[in-house]
Every structure is written in structure tokens, then in C-alpha cells.
């Protein structure tokens, strides 16, 4: 069963109204609620609580590839330019927001 991605998505690959380039294909599972959202803005606009980054060393699934729906840990995602399962490219500009998502 595919994980549920909340927020204003615009397609089946988890792109949203805020980020929708061909490389914007991930969703983040937020540490505060355990729910997937396409981005921090989607979470902030639709969740009823503030976001919280994953603590350092967190090992569970935290990132979802929107192409193949593989779940990745923070370490797997941060060390990859592409999905290790389907080789879809990730947006390198997402690194600008790592401090919001990952402690």
C-alpha cells in the first residue's frame, strides 16, 4: 500500500503548488506527526501544529520518492542525488531546506 501524502499536491509524483519542477519528486515524513507532505510550506499551511525536524541519527523512513514510492532514511536521502531504487533525480536545491527537515 502506498503511503498517503497530505497537502496540496499537483500530481502523482508528490509535486505541490509550491515546488513543481521535474526534479521535485520527494515527500518528507515530518518528525512532529509522522505524516508525509511534499514540502515544509504544505505542512505549515495544512497541519494543525508546528513542524519539527528529525533528530540527528534518526533511522526510520523519512523521505518518499514520488516516482517509485520507495521510502528512504535521512542518511540514505542526504547521501543521494538520485533515488537508489529507480534512479530518478532529486532536486539538488532541496539541500537549502535540510535544516528545516533534518536536525
Automatic annotation (TrEMBL):
The keyword Disulfide bond does not apply. Residues 9-88 form the CHY-type domain. The keyword Zinc applies. One of its GO terms (molecular function) is zinc ion binding. PROSITE patterns: ZF_CHY. Pfam families: zf-CHY. Keywords: Metal-binding, Zinc, Zinc-finger. One of its GO terms (biological process) is protein import into mitochondrial intermembrane space. PANTHER family: HELPER OF TIM PROTEIN 13, ZINC FINGER PROTEIN. This is CHY-type domain-containing protein. It comes from Promicromonospora soli.
Amino acid at each position: 500500500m502506498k503511503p498517503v501524502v497530505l497537502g496540496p499536491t499537483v500530481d502523482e509524483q508528490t509535486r505541490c503548488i509550491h515546488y513543481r519542477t521535474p526534479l521535485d519528486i520527494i515527500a518528507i515524513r515530518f518528525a512532529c506527526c509522522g505524516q508525509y507532505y511534499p514540502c515544509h510550506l504544505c505542512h505549515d499551511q495544512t497541519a494543525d501544529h508546528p513542524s519539527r525536524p528529525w533528530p540527528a541519527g534518526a533511522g526510520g523512513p523519512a523521505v518518499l520518492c514520488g516516482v517509485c514510492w520507495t521510502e528512504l532514511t535521512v542518511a540514505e536521502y542526504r547521501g543521494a542525488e538520485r533515488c537508489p531504487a529507480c534512479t530518478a533525480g532529486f532536486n539538488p536545491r532541496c539541500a537549502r531546506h535540510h535544516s528545516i527537515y533534518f536536525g
